[in-house]
């Protein structure tokens, strides 16, 4: 037996002892079990703790994926069968991770789902859940997953980025940072839009951290992902139905409950269904400064996307556009590119034409500067008593610029 093989075989023996004894798997119990093995006498404390951490991860954690999920640079871990792909903010790259065989990956997926209180087996071959550390898990088993199992894990950042950090990372251009702060200070309602994994939640988390500490933020989410740095945040999370098909709690129900919780800022983590009708109704009853995220490839697609969601809630097209024009002001588009996630544009939702249909008019676009609505955004901020940032002041003729 080589020195390199001994720790691996020791870990296997300890795992088997826990499986046979069915004792609680606590970190302290795992360390004690490793030390009790006769071969552990030649190992130092660091090696013992390293093996204990691995055994604990294999029994109750993410196993071979645990180190990736703990890496602060990793945003997504994807498993296709036994192949692992990782995104560290610059696109997906395949890496070598010793997952074992397909059956080992299946057991890992089932253990992770069980730790979140969800069922994953032949009768329920897919699951969408949130792990105890905040990691978002989606898993699909064969035969639904043709070459699976498939696991999609989105990591949870314990501390949201500050606006200065987003500027430092290149996500937000430096001249636009005061614009984002002014949007929050002026209590303008805004949507952060973009594709999957484009950084919508990251930007929303940061902007919610700019809300004054005297205000109460009420979050409504399908899965609890928002954790803004703010002293007064309460969260409501939707719930799926149980195995009998009952007990579901919809986002729309939670929006209505949130209105009774004295919110200064009402936030819907992701608008994806009929709850958009309840959100627009809420924002039109004096709850300004609200926010949310929306899947849309470009700001120009936002009105059509809202129309589609509004129809799910029985809201006709004309009524929806009237509600949007009164309730929402700003669209922030984020995009994931080769250099990372970036703020691509800032737009205003403005009613235009004889039918007064809302369109997204650019106020600022990356690489092009101010757009047609730059002056209108400056006017909105000025009317609400907020200093117009310098990048928007260039949209004003010098004689008409607000003080």
Characterise the protein shown here.
- The protein has helices at 5-21, 27-36, 45-60, 66-70, 102-115, 163-168, 177-185, 200-208, 251-258, 275-283, 302-312, 317-327, 374-383, 390-393; strands at residues 76-80, 83-87, 92-95, 126-130, 136-140, 150-154, 190-194, 217-221, 233-237, 265-271, 291-295, 330-337, 340-352, 357-365, 369-370.
- By secondary structure, the protein is α/β, with parallel strands linked by helices.
- The chain is built from 14 helices and 15 strands.
- The radius of gyration is 25 Å and the shape is elongated.
- Helices cover 34% and strands 22% of the residues.
- The chain folds into three domains: 5-60, no CATH class; 64-154, Beta-Lactamase (2-Layer Sandwich); 163-393, P-loop containing nucleotide triphosphate hydrolases (Rossmann fold, 3-Layer(aba) Sandwich).
- A hairpin with a 4-residue loop joins strand 13 and strand 14 (357-365).
- Helix 1 crosses helix 3, helix 2 (27-36) packs across helix 3 and helix 9 (251-258) runs parallel beside helix 10.
